[in-house]
Amino acid sequence: MFSKLISATLAGFLVSSVHAAPAAHSSATTNTTLSAMLPLSSDTSFSYEILRDLGLARYFGADVGEVLQAAGNVTAADMEGFSDTFANLANHVYSQAQAINSSEFPVSARDFYFRAATYFRSADFYLHGNASDARIMAYFANQTDAFDKAISLLDIPGQRINLKAADGSFTIPCIYYQASGANATHPKPTVILGNGYDGAQEEMLHVSGFAALERGYNVLTYEGPGQPSVRRYQNLGFITEWEKVVTPIVDFLVSGARPEVDAARLGLFGYSMGGFLAVRAAAFEHRLAAVWAVDGLFDVFEPYYNAFKTTPLGTLWNYGEQTGNYTAFDNEMDAYLFDSGLADTETIWGIVQGIWSFNVQTPSEFLRKAKPMTLQNISHQVTTPVWIGAPSEDIFFPGQPQKVRDSLNPGLATFHELGAADGAQNHCHVGAMSLVNELIFDWFAGVIQ
């Protein structure tokens, strides 16, 4: 998912600077993202991530009671405690899966393995501030092991496939799921699912993959540079040119290697920051029948910059832009995040995740890498219909979905603002995926008919 924006406390901190007495503030912030919902934690970031896990229960990725039990053991602002709590839950559920005879009870074992994989991912989520933390690799290996055991127990097992970028500079790890009844005589539409700033491709099976399979569509999930497995095993950060990731996938799907794929009916789904990545790819890859941006993101850099541009930090950033020297900006940002006592969980995580996922060393390097990631002067090249989601209470990048809509050529955008009446007001509409999947796949059926 996309980064949690620099919080409003940043402005107050920078006006007074780190050398002044800090204003009263608690890192367990008011839960504005979940304003109309029952809070799951007094920590906004934790509450969102817990809801994110709960939202996967609809499609076999979690169970409500065990997630709520874990939530009750988490203390606001304690990222280590959050990690330990979900690691304990993951290991517990994994051990339960191991105790099931999967040959005799494949559905039971599969469900436990899927849930264990989710909780291992949650255990990893807040660890990326220390790139050398061994748990970053260990928990991801654990989630992969559990997930692979689960997909091997599907009626039609999922298959891992590695594709090469056209220039050979990186490998694109994918998982392919064949729809029931799909074959060379009856080829089916195929949905390509991509995550965003922090999420794994495995999560996407629970977000919309199972929903697509239920509707008779093949599914392919993938990861590119900056995303979990490519960042870990190929040491590559995010790139702007996402068509370098998507085009080899389309090449594979239209090649005839999978005869059950209808090459004329491919859809590309981008989740969170993937909403930018998918539309960016569609500006260069025109063999797609449809694109989903859940949610729409026009400019990756802009929401960050807007958070600090009117503060002294904005002045330091502008100085760096003029001189190439960002040392003062980085020092001030580091002081805010780690020394001031003002930064909340979502702010700290948002910046350190950017540093980790873009594979850089400083906040300014991360932001400079993000700056070219915009649809400005590109979106007019999109020729594919685009479904755009807009959560009514998304504090991460409000207004961005509307910018995507307005930038596309007339007639291409289908825009849905979803709100509290449907429990769909939060970033990526987490917790409301039954509704979202009904909307996106009913729309897709109309596009490809």
Which keywords apply here?
single chain, 449 residues, alpha/beta, de novo design (two linked rop proteins), Rossmann fold, 2 domains, 8-stranded mixed β-sheet, 17 helices, 8 strands, 12% strand, globular, disordered N terminus, Dihydropseudooxynicotine hydrolase, FrsA_esterase, signal, AB_hydrolase_fold, hydrolase activity
Describe this structure in words.
With 449 residues, the protein is of the alpha/beta class. The protein is 45% helix and 12% strand. The chain is built from 17 helices and eight strands. Strands 1-2-4-3-5-6-7-8 form an eight-stranded mixed sheet, sandwiched between helices. Strand 7, helix 16 (400-407) and strand 8 (413-418) form a beta-alpha-beta unit. Helix 2 (44-55) runs antiparallel to helix 3 and helix 5 runs antiparallel to helix 6.
